[in-house]
């Protein structure tokens, strides 16, 4: 989840709302990243999620559900706001929960 969130933020740093609304490839890429984040949240145990209420687990799942099951109803303004505002907040919330990978500079 963290790597996907960091990756989509990095790769869309210059993306405007208008570009997202107009480009199907960008829509697909952002949608897929948000789906993966939501899927990862869904797979976590209930006790883990309960221990970390600072992460909006239910909202992550709701976004995934919308993108997967109600794709025709997607509001790209909401997706864009999620990408630019909520995903960076998610990264901050997830970082303390993820142990460093072997070889990371911090380890």
Brief digest:
The chain has 107 residues and is mainly α. The protein has helices at 2-11, 17-22, 24-43, 46-51, 57-69, 76-94.
Task: Give an overview of the whole structure.
By secondary structure, this protein is mainly α. The protein has one domain. It is 69% helix and 0% strand. The protein is built from 6 helices and no strands.
Morphology call: globular
Uncertain stretches: none
Strand % is: under 5%
Helix content: 55-70%
Largest pleated sheet: none
Q: Whole-Å distance between the termini?
A: 20 Å
GO molecular function, one term: RNA nuclease activity
Keywords: Hydrolase, Nuclease, Nucleotide-binding, Phosphoprotein, Toxin-antitoxin system
Pfam families: HepT-like
List keywords for this structure.
mainly alpha, globular, HepT-like, 6 helices, single chain, hydrolase activity, RNA nuclease activity, 107 residues, HepT_RNase_toxin
Which secondary structure elements does this structure contain, and how are they paired or packed?
Layout: H1 2-11, H2 17-22, H3 24-43, H4 46-51, H5 57-69, H6 76-94
